[in-house]
Specification:
By secondary structure, the protein is α/β, with parallel strands linked by helices. It is built from 7 helices and 9 strands, in the order αββββααββαβαβαβα. It has a single domain (2-269), classed as Nucleoside phosphorylase domain (Rossmann fold). It has helices spanning 2-15, 88-91, 93-101, 160-173, 193-202, 212-220, 245-269, and strands at 22-26, 38-44, 62-68, 71-77, 105-114, 124-134, 177-185, 206-208, 225-234.
Length: 270
């Protein structure tokens, strides 16, 4: 793994000479956020050694390097999921590579289903904690001390100081944000009504198919993490209507301006 990480990072460095300080992972339907970036270089995943290829609609599949709020950043336009057939280790490979490129903070975003009935479609939910019992842990297998400890502490997976910064930014801009616990599942099926009820009983506020493996990997490597969900559907529906991927993408797009405003100002304050 170490050789593959270094090969991928060295290849990227041979193409792009800048050093990003912030890594950003864009979730489903949030790809237009890249319009806010002063782009210096785009590298398709297919051109990077050992990188997986994104197969999901709404994920374009490239690394974008440039400036945002005057800071050098690298953004993943398209992430990887367990349900695509990748291993948990493959899913987080780009996070490892971004660390080797020099990032010092990782910002994660996703489209999530609301489980807590106080969450509505279009809400922005700051992730304060997560439950990862329903999906594989990316640290299973051989541990590499160069990356992090065998048993990393997860008492603060999402940095409180970053959460407080975003809450202050949101208050200043008049943007409503919620806070909650994110539960990760493997997908690709949306949850059954019984599963939604179980997740709620477990203490989850929102559910999705990403983000947690990336957060675990970042914590393992000592990277501070901030994560936010765009609530794109509500799981427990009185009318029992079906959830569709198109609905998720449409709701994410509608929430994108407020999402972008928060991330842009957060990067400025890092």
């Amino acid at each position: 793994m170490m050789e593959k990480i270094k090969e991928a990072a060295d290849h990227i460095k041979s193409i792009y000479g800048g050093q990003p300080g912030v890594g950003i992972v864009l979730g489903s339907g949030l790809g237009s956020f890249t319009n806010e970036i002063n782009i210096e270089k785009e590298i398709p995943y297919a051109d990077i050694p050992h990188f997986p290829i994104s197969t999901v609609a709404g994920h374009s599949g490239k690394l974008i390097f440039g400036e945002l709020s005057g800071k050098k950043i690298v953004a993943m336009a398209g992430r990887f999921h367990y349900y695509e057939g990748y291993t948990a280790q493959q899913i987080v490979f780009p996070i490892r590579v971004m660390k080797f490129l020099g990032i010092q903070t990782l910002l994660l975003s996703n489209a999530a289903g609301g489980v807590n009935t106080s969450l509505k479609v279009g809400d922005l939910m700051i992730i304060t904690d997560h439950i990862s019992q329903l999906a594989p842990n990316p640290l299973i297998g051989k541990n590499y001390p160069e990356l992090g400890p065998r048993f990393p502490d997860m008492s603060e997976p999402y940095k409180k100081d970053l959460i407080n910064k975003v809450k202050a930014i949101a208050a200043q801009k008049g943007i409503k944000v919620k806070e909650g616990i994110y539960v990760v599942v493997t997908g690709p099926t949306f949850e059954t009504l019984a599963e939604y009820k179980m997740i709620l009983a477990m203490g989850g506020d929102a559910v999705g198919m990403s983000t947690v493996p990336e957060a675990i990997t970042a914590v393992h490597m000592g990277l501070p993490v901030f994560a936010m969900s765009v609530i794109t559907d509500v799981g427990i529906r009185e009318d029992h209507t079906a959830v569709t991927h198109e609905e998720v993408l449409q709701a994410a797009k509608a929430a994108e301006p407020n999402f972008a405003a928060l991330f842009i100002e957060l990067v400025a304050q890092l």
